[in-house]
Amino acid sequence: MAETAFPDPITLYRLVHVENLPTLLTRGALHAPNCTPNDALLYRAIHNMNVQMSRHNRPIPCGPRGTCHDYVPFYFGPLSVMLLNLKTGRVEGYTEGQAPLIYLTTTVQLVVEAGRRFVFSDGHGLATFTNWYDDLASLDRVDWNLVGARYWTDQPDDNDRKRRKQAEFPGLALA
With contact defined as beta carbons under 8 Å apart, do 164 and 122 qualify? Predict the structure, then answer.
């Protein structure tokens, strides 16, 4: 992995369907899947259900611990694999393309200033060899060239690009 200094500030991206804005504004917050209020407000799902089932059970080995669903997931880069899958019709039950999708953004620095606990990964959260961290001193473990890249297909000399592209900051732990 080529060494690159990370950006300052470090922008975080949360992809949502625009129809979810009224619900998010009414709730006044983003909630981790395991902490979503039972308020009967509508929320338009845009994710792959099989991936979400796996994330529900994926333990986080550091920080507040729990599972991936105890956190609000953010990506380090704006051109996510999830966005590509939604755009190209690879998410069962979703056929609207990318037009109604928006990013909610914040920064790592604002999360820290707010006193929120967090974790982050150096790759896709479900990959068994992805490493998790809860110390900002480990941000150099993220492949900053790749998380912001437009193209990320695995290459013969680097067959781990897609996993690293999906490094995430499932911060804002609410558990």
Answer: yes
Query: Tell me: the pLDDT tens digits for 10-57?
Result: 999 999 999 999 999 999 989 999 999 999 999 999 999 898 999 999
User: Which tokens belong to 9?
Assistant: 């500030």
Helix, strand, coil % in the chain, rounded to nearest 5: 30, 15, 55
| pTM given for the model | 0.91
Location of structure tokens 């953004």: 105
Contact 24, 30 (CB under 8 A): yes
Is the separation of the CB atoms in 125 and 170 below 8 Å? yes
Tell me if residue 105 falls in helix, strand or coil: strand
Q: Pairing mode, if any, of strands 11-17 and 101-107?
A: antiparallel
For the annotated catalytic residues, the residue numbers are: 55, 168
3-state secondary structure of 146: helix
> Cα–Cα distances in Å, from 167 out to 26, 36, 44, 131?
30, 24, 24, 10
3-state class of 90 per DSSP? coil
Per residue in 59-91, pLDDT (tens digit) is: 999 999 999 999 999 999 999 889 999 999 999
Total residues belonging to the chain: 175
